[in-house]
Amino acid sequence: MTRVKGRRTGRRAPAHGRPPIARPPTKKARVEIVEVALRDGLQNEAAIVSLEDRVKIAEQLIIAGVKRLELGAFVRADRVPQMAGTKELVKRVYQDLGLSSSKQSAVCPSALVPNLRGFEEAMQTPIGEIAVFTAASESFAKANINCSIEESFERFIPVIKAAKQKGLRVRGYLSTCFGCPYEGEVDEKKVVELASRLLRMGCFEISIGDTIGVATPKQVISLFRRLKRKIPIRRLAGHFHDTRGTALANIFAAHGLGVRVFDSSLGGLGGCPYAPSASGNVSTEDVVYMFHGMGVETGIDLRKLVELSRLLGGMVGKLLQSRTGQAGLPKVSRLNS
């Protein structure tokens, strides 16, 4: 300690007269939110939201700071009427906001593409990212996409190959990773095997889904620890439904293991048609509120999210199940950004 007139100053003298080393500022913690209300949320709703209203929600989400969002799905409108007009929606959003389909673009809209027919339609738009999906349980795969797990892979192998040739990013969804409404428990080894297979096939990121909302933090920690041994953590995302009120706790647990990408839905919109008791996705407002309170950045304006949640609720004709949306924001400015 340096002494001045016999007193300690509390500072350590620089060694050999050299100035102390300046430490770089600590990088602020950050997570990425993937907004899924316009696809995973709306496709389970009876109400049909117009193309104009979906364009409005999509554009306002991006203006609020959402960088990654699903705009829709390139599927048959007679089977999923809520997704009708996805091609026009994508074109409008890209044109209105002057977006780029480049991989380096700050805003990355995506759309679900189940097969080559859907891919061909997607290629008529400027979309820069697509998603494919399968399940970790055979019964759910057959109920949800009318094929076995192996058949689902056979369907999207050519889709991924074609997407790579076009320079598109491909995201993989893996449903029922924590439990199946028909089979109950799902083997963690199977989840790791299927997620690893998606990665090898060319998916840049795999979303690990708690489709029916049965997971608990202990289960989340166990599965993601297994996944981390085979897959870089930066390639994994968490997709949690809030059926039993554990979604935020599960996200917190996954974040503690290094997961930095989470799917959520404005207002908690969504559900699962093949598991009637399963409620919607975790609410984007609730996820953002929690992370902002933890000092973790999302880049999203929480107040605008709350306003948009109420607007979307009016469009589908019901009060959405977002706790933050219903309660409003406390007068604590640091929670907003």
Please tag this protein with its features.
two-stranded antiparallel ribbon, alpha/beta, 12 helices, 337 residues, 39% helix, TIM Barrel, eight-stranded parallel beta barrel, disordered N terminus
Per-chain topology:
Layout: E1 3-4, E2 7-8, E3 32-35, H1 37-41, H2 51-63, E4 68-73, H3 86-97, E5 108-112, H4 116-122, E6 129-135, H5 138-145, H6 149-165, E7 169-175, H7 188-201, E8 205-210, H8 217-230, E9 236-240, H9 247-256, E10 261-264, H10 284-293, H11 302-316, H12 323-327
Parallel strand pairs: 3-4, 3-10, 4-5, 5-6, 6-7, 7-8, 8-9, 9-10
Antiparallel strand pairs: 1-2
Helix pairs in contact: 2-3, 2-11, 7-8, 8-9, 10-11
Structure description:
With 337 residues, the protein is an alpha/beta fold. It has a single domain, classed as TIM Barrel, CATH 3.20.20.70. 39% of the residues lie in helices and 14% in strands. The protein has 12 helices and 10 strands. It has helices at 37-41, 51-63, 86-97, 116-122, 138-145, 149-165, 188-201, 217-230, 247-256, 284-293, 302-316, 323-327; strands at residues 3-4, 7-8, 32-35, 68-73, 108-112, 129-135, 169-175, 205-210, 236-240, 261-264. The strands form 2 sheets. The chain has an 8-stranded parallel barrel, surrounded by 7 helices. A two-stranded antiparallel sheet has the order 1-2. Strand 5, helix 4 and strand 6 form a beta-alpha-beta unit. The longest helix is centred in the middle third of the chain and has 17 residues, at 149-165. The radius of gyration is 22 Å and the shape is globular. It starts with a strand and ends in a 10-residue tail after the last helix.
